[in-house]
User: Fold this.
Amino acid sequence: MVANTSAEVARGAHIAVRNVSHWFELPGGALQVIADLDLDIQPGEFVALLGPSGCGKSTLLRLVAGLEPATAGSLQHDGQAITDPDPSRIVVFQDPTLFPWRTVWDNVALGLQARGLLKTQRHRVDEALALVGLEGFSKALPHQLSGGMAQRVALARALVNDPGLLVLDEPLGKLDSLTRLAMQTELVNLWQRSGFSVLLVTHDVEEALFMAQRVVVLSDRPARIKQVLVNDLPYPRHRGDPRLAELRHQALSLLGLAESW
Assistant:
């Protein structure tokens, strides 16, 4: 199932993770954080990763984004080896990391500016701001924004590059609960409109199940896939849906928290 339900083919990336293992070299010896992991993200698909803290979720994101190479195995983006970062795979972190002296518009324009494209493609900055609902704040400075607005700027900065894959590392983790719920819906709407693929890391079981089509539950370190939960509920979803409650119970059980439900 992909985000795009029209006749148009989803333009999102196909990511293939094949037999990937990864170690960190520490003073006391090598620490394995991922073990023999296989994962596919289909074009236009929304996939979330759940697992215990420190199990290797964010490390897997870094490997998929090309921020570091895997110790063993292979990762491919549309059939091409992932060896380095690329504008087609954009990471959005928990902290928006906006430059405080640059306006919203100038922060969003950074990617195009760095690639020498800003002069001919300025319109893409305005389009990205419109996508996240911030067209009226282009001249604002970061300190004038709420937390949710700052994170929308970070999303616009990613979208201006027209990515095939959006990699989200706890992007809503620092927001208050009401803003977080609203942003979950906004992110899903943005994904549906744009057609990119998404790989999300979150510690919030309900967030993963509300947003994603598949939720990959990982084991303790080194991360292995324990189970993949498929959420075939149509969008827009309703948080009180009995199917979400059923999936929540499955996820919590896999995470060793069945007694809390």
In short: Residues 13-88+199-261 form a domain with the Rossmann fold fold (CATH 3.40.50.300). Residues 177-194 form the longest helix (18 residues). The helical segments are 57-65, 104-108, 110-114, 123-131, 147-159, 177-194, 205-211, 242-254. Confidence is low (pLDDT under 50) at residues 1-9.
